[in-house]
Design brief:
heterodimer, A: mainly alpha, 5-stranded mixed beta sheet, B: 339 residues, alpha/beta, Rossmann fold, Alpha-Beta Plaits, 6-stranded mixed beta sheet, 12 helices
Amino acid sequence: MIRTALLIFRNEFRLLLRDRMSIFMLFMAPVVIIAVAGFSLGNMFGAPAGGRKYLIPIVDRDHGEIARAIVHGMSQDSRLRLVNAADETAARTILAKNDDAPIAIVIPAGTTASFSAGRGSDVIIYVDPVKRVEAYALELRLTEVSRAIAMAARDRAQARLVRARAGIDAKTGNLRAQFDELKKEIAEYQAHAEAARASLQKKMAAEIDARLAQIEAQSHAALAAALRARQLEIAAKLGEKQTATAAMVSYLKNLEAARSAFELWFGRLQAVAGSHAAEISSPPAWPPPPNPRVIAELKEPIKLSFNPNDIAMPAPNLRFNLPAPEPLKFPPLALDLKQMAPGPAIALPGVIGWRDRSLTPGYAEVNSFDQYVPGFGITFLLIDILWGVSVGLIDERDWGTLQRLRVSGAPISGLLSGKLTARFLIGFVQMVVLLGVGRLLFGISLGESPAMLLLPTAAIAFSAAAFGLVIAVIARTRDSVLPLGSVGAMTMSAVGGCWWPLNFEPAWMRAAAQWIPTTWTMRAYNDLMIRGLPPAHALKPAVITFGLGLAFLGLGMLGAMRGLD
Amino acid sequence: MHCTFRRLWTARLCCNIRGVSSPGPLVRVSELRKSYGSRLVLDNVSFDVAAGEIVGLLGPNGAGKTTTLSILATLRNPDAGNVTIAGHDLRREPRAVRRRLGLAPQSIAIYPSLSAFQNVELFARIHGLTAAAARSATAAALEIVGLDERAHESAATLSGGMRRRVNLACAMVHRPEILLLDEPTVGVDPQSRERILQILRELAVSGIAVIYSTHYMEEVERLCDKVLLIDRGRLLAEGPVAELVSRAGSRHRMELALRGRPPADLYAGLTGVEPIVSGAGDDRVILMLADLGKVAEVLERARAAGFPAIEFNLHSPNLSDAFMTLTGRALRDYSENHG
């Protein structure tokens, strides 16, 4: 068993060594694809492949420090080559005509002033939307430059702030010392004031006691005088009242006697009148005599109550002169507040940003499917047509139908034309369907005139069919078509910008790409779908694609005539 | 069968017959030479084929049969020599030549995904028949090869023998004057083989010249009017089968398996018996017999010596023997293909 295994093991290598196509697939094909991808995708990681430099037109309308700093910062990047453009039109022209120019930078007037004043200012960037990814990388670079400028400005402002802070700290220390001195003086003043207050309080207490004694004596004298005067007055008043009362009592007694006399007179009158007595009206009634108790009251002596309030007290003389306090020595205020006056204003740096503008009528931002639907559509179109044409022809050769067709009198050109036309049509329909699906599912742009997309589509389908013939002639066997065809299709797709924008690639690869049809087809698709350019822009790429297809067709037909049997 | 064939062929296809354009041979090959690099594959090969003649190209693999047919079919150019077909020079008038040819290549040259009818009709149209004529000729050709009932089935679903018959139908649908057949019965079941051979006979009877390349000796012996015995690019002999077989002599070959291991001189002294293989200690013996009457003597000698025969085979002279006589070697692959 081990012997068998060893023999089979050895035989496998012998078979492999005799199969050049397998060796190609094992080692060369991956290297080709890796190389293409590596060269092409290098600048996704921030560096253009192949030592080329990005060309960046710059329009400086600011002519200030910030503009110079931006230009200087960008020029320090070895990947970049800056050129001055007179105006935006010139910059956009450079951008449109150079594959190496993904963006143009316009520094508006007043950028430096705005930045210095702490305000935001935007640099304008014109972007070729097809070179969006590179534009991102360069915008990142611009961000770094802007940040460096802002950082430098911030550092300068920081240094100024530090210096200002030190000045303020010194002034504050000085003030603090002054305040300490002042505090000490105030404490002394407070002690002095306290002593003065105690002395004054003592003097005031003595004075008040003296004054209170004086007031007391004066009050006693005034009260005694008032009592005596009142007593005299009351006695006088009582004498007068008693005299009047005696007169009244006498009158009342007379009046009583008069009433008794009247009643007697009236009795007699009535008696005299006889029968006419009834006609005599009753005399008015005599007022009844006062209550004897009231009359008796008049005899009672008058009792006086004494209200001290009624006594006019002499106003105390509280007006006195305090002793003059000892003059206080108020400490002099030695604070030099003038030194705290604010210094010149320190402005913080502003912000440098940017705004994107599309180079073309299309959008600055790209729907990635605008790249990938046509790109991968072309890849699969190539593979499918390649498979159909190459494998179809090789199958026919292997089956013997090709020989039979030739013996049947069919010219090889007619046979190939029929096959290629059919495959062309299939590829054309495939691409149209893919674009339609891309529109429906992914919202890709079909440009101003979707019908114009049919022109590059027809061109690439034709070229792919012709290329399939070339592969069929070269590959010779079915097993060879797969490696040769797939590597050919993938390489053409990759180099031609189907998988990534063409300008990702190094210069030599882009130069080579000019000779493959995918490059021109993708250019036409990009112009129509992404850049939104007028339909006429697709004419030249489509014609070149057709031309390359014709060259493939010529080579393929030549090879087929010589060896496709 | 014959009546049906002729009726179909003459009724539907006779309009395509261009007839023999000259009284001479329909195919004339003179001093044909062809090399692939430094390897000479055809070396001054010359032969003629007449209308209605079935010519067998017999030789081992690599003898040059397919190259000869490829040159006749205009698929390859000879390095030297001349070929005229129906009076047309192969190099100068390839289109005229092709119109007169039908080729059934060694591989089954049909489209697997198409039906038998579609395959045959396609080649009819390629040969220039109108749509209606192509349909009619296709139906006739498929009926001739016995596939009319399965005409619309995908070729991939047909058996190998049926596909071979479709292959033949494609070659003859346009009624060629010359039919080139390259190993048309390889891998075919006996029934289909018989059918194909019968068709070819009928085609020859109808005037078509058939050049039949094979390494199946029996087919050549049964079918061909003339045999071209070819090896290593050289035409060793040509002529009717009987004539070539006679070159191998009239002796019969007898192969015996004996019980035990007889001595080498077991058959010494027997007249008309020549040992070819009788090594000492070998239980298998090959003898050449002058006539079949020697068989009994051989068996008796072995039995008497104590080595009775277990089995024996008798082999009369044939083309393989003629080939061995001419080249000293057996027809390669003969046994494998008949094993």
